[in-house]
Amino acid sequence: MPEPLPQEPAPREPVRTYKVRRRVTTGQAGALARLLPRYGVDPDAPLDPVATFGRRAPLVVEIGSGMGEATAAMAAADPGRDVLAVEVHTPGLGNLLRLVEAAGLTNVRVVEADAREVLRDLLTPGSVDEVRVFFPDPWPKARHAKRRLVSAAFADLVAERLRPGGRLHVATDWPAYADGATAVLAAHPAYDVVSRERGARPITRFEQRGTDAGRASADLVARRR
Asked: Which CATH number goes with the domain that contains 66?
């Protein structure tokens, strides 16, 4: 009897950089059902920003928009740029959609997907004006550090999608995350680290939790060369 052919090992799943949270309220579920057809982006198709937003404008990609308060506030204060909010937290998407509708915002779209897949598969090189990563899951334990989103591989991917002069803005309230992100970007040939000051942005819900717990926030801005 012939020996069975060796099987190729199954492809490894990418290391997850976030925790999934999916319990939604009735209002959030209603907003998702009603507004996703209007404001949602297909996570399986390349993005055409002009067709999606109905105009040609600088594009901001916000990774991890949370409950959406800061996202909506920044979009309202910056109507000249379009915002693609990337989130895996379903309740947060529902809440953001409610805020977008209430404020009558036309420059926000949402996509429920892994940010790395959005950057890799939906966006073209040089098409993004800014990438925001505000208060990503910190993975504070040393054995979980490999799960942090901001890594050398992530910096490579963002650099490919940013236009020359575009910005990567990272904010965190965990010192080890801030130090690690700074080390990654300072060593990367595609970036100049231009600031570690907070700048003008709203306080996010996660930032307020950190402040209440006694953790100070750190901002890191790097410019694409």
From this structure: 3.40.50.150
**Whole-prediction pTM value?**
0.87
Query: What average pLDDT does the structure give for the chain?
Result: 89
Instruction: Tell me how far CA of residue 155 lies from CA of 173, 205, 206, 219, in angstroms.
Output: 20, 25, 23, 16
Answer yes or no: is 32 within a domain: no
DSSP state of 142: G
pLDDT one-digit tens code per residue, 45-56: 999 999 999 999
Q: Which residue has the tokens 């959406």?
A: 68
Q: Which residues contact 6 (CB under 8 A, 6 or more apart)?
A: none
Residue 220 one-letter amino acid = L
Range of the domain at 137: 37-224
> Catalytic pick from 42, 78, 121, 137?
137
> Max alpha carbon distance in the chain (Å)?
72
137 is catalytic: yes
Q: Give yes or no for a contact between 148 and 180, defined as CB atoms under 8 angstroms apart.
A: yes
Do the Cβ atoms of 72 and 65 come closer than 8 Å? Answer: no
Q: Edge to edge, what strands does the sheet with 108-111 contain?
A: 108-111, 82-86, 59-63, 128-134, 162-172, 218-224, 191-195
Q: Is residue 126 part of a domain?
A: yes
